[in-house]
């Protein structure tokens, strides 16, 4: 009897002792240890709810997290003495109360939607060892204030705003979802990746660089405070859902754009004005896919007037098919684990627009734009010069936008002049029938003077030149005056070859080395009957054939682009 009582007490003591200790055992899936001579468990669950597995290279991957309302979670550096190198797809997706995630040193990969919709996450530190981050991994983290990068990371870099870029800053990877205010994207960036600014509801403004070539799908989805955007001339396709659900009121689209993808401006209920930097005839050629009703209902200002209702391009692809096209887009959510794919139906009124959280590489053709337009006279002091005909209040048409351009220079935003030299800026007002007049001003007249757009370098320094319409719209550029001319040592074009359809146009971009060279440039085409080029670098395709466009600096340096017209 005593032996039975002792045995019973011993059993109970063991049971309660096990309850007091943390769970250290792992769960084994059937068949996972087959062929494993080390008898090490190859898949299991850690006490903190993380599920792991051994990868083919012998390292560990975190594949799942059993979320029970935790505020913090730490991913271990090793499991069973094997380094943790990967966080796979969807691991922390939807963990809305999770405020802090500590990632391990040695981590190399962050997978698809790994932290998507972690609404309470405010900061994430990315280890220096990380070499692969999927574009969707941080999407929907609305309160993420900062992304931090450990020193020594060779694949990624951050700017002063905490925005994540590729190491050489040619592509913009992700903006923290809690970012507020205006963002200036630096020159040199050529791509804004998929969902980069998704749900950045505090983003009020964005300046896109002239170097930009691609804005991927969903890049600015749900940016409800973003009211205006100017798409640069180097962009030829506006991809699906790129600005869907944003707060856009005005958008400037270059004539280089040949296609506006499905719902690119869908659910932009505040959109009233589209400034198209081409003619009404060119606008009719633009392919506008389904879901872009806000664009078609807006007032479309072209260089030769406002598009009438009958002149707006039709929805040429109501079924969103791509017959005869080289483009591929996918507006569906990436496949969930288990092979079930979630399709987002079109939302009802007042619902949020559907998202497209999968990135597919999309190739696009080259195209261009036309920005020539007359300028209105002004004074050097910035005082408005009266119109020759006084318009009545009822007939006054205020300008909604001002743009600057300059001939025979690589850039109209940053101009370099030698002391005593001059250049002429041209200002373009939208809409074309505006009754506004222009006033020109210089922030430092002693450095750079301006009169009716004619600027002159007075002494070394930098000044800001501004053209202001009588209704208050502005455009500006910076002018740096050097003590003497600085010759270029080389010139480079943004394209070595392009293919255009007859009637299309494309703006070539020339860059000088050094960047502050004062050299002017000239353009010429070897066969003007095939394609011409103007003093702004705008190529116009005229008939089938081939030609070569050459840019020549004042110093005699050259660069060429082969043009094929089909």
Give an overview in words.
The protein is globular and about 75 Å long. Strands 1, 2, 3, 5, 6, 8 and 10 form a seven-stranded mixed sheet that branches. Strands 12-13-14-16-18 form a five-stranded mixed sheet, with no helix packed on it. A five-stranded mixed sheet has the order 19-21-23-25-26. The chain is mostly beta strands. It has four domains: 117 residues, Ribonuclease Inhibitor (Leucine-rich repeat, LRR (right-handed beta-alpha superhelix), Alpha-Beta Horseshoe), CATH 3.80.10; 159 residues, Ribonuclease Inhibitor (Leucine-rich repeat, LRR (right-handed beta-alpha superhelix), Alpha-Beta Horseshoe), CATH 3.80.10.10; 82 residues, Immunoglobulin-like, CATH 2.60.40.1080; 76 residues, Sandwich (Immunoglobulin-like), CATH 2.60.40. The protein is built from three helices and 44 strands. The protein starts with a helix and ends with a strand.
SSE order and pairing:
Blueprint: H1 2-20, E1 43-45, E2 50-54, E3 60-65, E4 72-74, E5 78-79, E6 82-87, E7 100-102, E8 109-110, E9 123-126, E10 132-133, E11 146-149, E12 156-158, E13 164-166, E14 171-174, E15 180-184, E16 191-192, E17 202-207, E18 214-215, E19 228-230, E20 237-238, E21 250-254, E22 259-260, E23 273-277, H2 280-285, E24 287-289, H3 293-297, E25 299-302, E26 305-306, E27 315-317, E28 401-406, E29 414-418, E30 422-430, E31 438-442, E32 448-451, E33 454-457, E34 461-469, E35 474-482, E36 490-493, E37 497-500, E38 505-507, E39 510-513, E40 521-525, E41 531-533, E42 538-541, E43 545-553, E44 558-565
